[in-house]
Amino acid sequence: MQLSETDFLHQVSTAWQICDRFDLQTEIWRGRILRTVRDREKQGGDGRGSGFLSWLNDREISKTQAYSLIELANSADTLLQDGMLQPEAVNCFSKRAFIETAQAAIEVQQMVCDLVNEPSGEAAPQITRREVRQIQDEWTTMSSDLLPLVVKEKAASSAIPTRYLTPLVRELEKLPPLHQTAIQDGITANPDVDTVKQATVEARYLAKYLAAAVQVQALNHSSIDLESALEEALRVGCLSSAADLVNQASQLEQSVIKLHAAWRRLNNLADRLYLDSGASTPNLRALLDQVAPLTQDLLEVDLGDPDGSFSQRVRLRILPDDLNPDVPA
Q: Using an 8 Å Cβ cutoff, are 300 and 293 in contact?
């Protein structure tokens, strides 16, 4: 009997998880073996680790892979030796989830291990990377000093789900203290989900504005007060447009710089090919002739179908470097 698509995918997922857990146990032991070989070579070798590297080369194991496995074994031993994790509980983790747990803060490790160290008779949950990241996000959020106390209390009582607070904390971390305080005051005055959502959006645009503004050369050469412009945008409710404006200006300047670099590179390649070609390479010379217009100071490119009614020609002129020495080409 042929399995339905749902049953088939479920069985494949189950089999994959089993392989993943066997793979985790295997790699932990491989890491322990590699660590033993490395330590022995350190004690009896030349002190430079050449014996260990030779051992790895004989088995076609890269140095990066070896030390990654050793790190995994160290993490496993730390969790097990401290009694934080029971040996049989390792099977509850997928490989990625275990590595994520080992790399997390000690508080997160404890919370994850508490989930799988269930009393006998109760089935321990299967921990995936998603669960570990969720716990890590919740801990990071609740331990952050950027959230007002009233918001943390609301989160503790489930009045405000932590899934709304994690993005807010991430965006607040990008802002200077002055702007953090303004947003925190707004949340404190009205601590609910809608306010948190709005504050997250506002913090995101603020971070976007501030990050892009320092990269725009046109703004660096002016006496404009960026903070005042930002306050005005907030006051009239057009912060998102102001942030997009500054971001687009930054992208445009970067595009111009990349265009100039590509144009110089094209000229150098064309000159090189011209010298390497000749009468015996007519097709190569024809290629150079067709590309030649793009090596000139005036660049012309059609937008859309040249024969279409909506076609438009874009012309860009690159000024010579010696025309104005104060302005970079």
A: yes
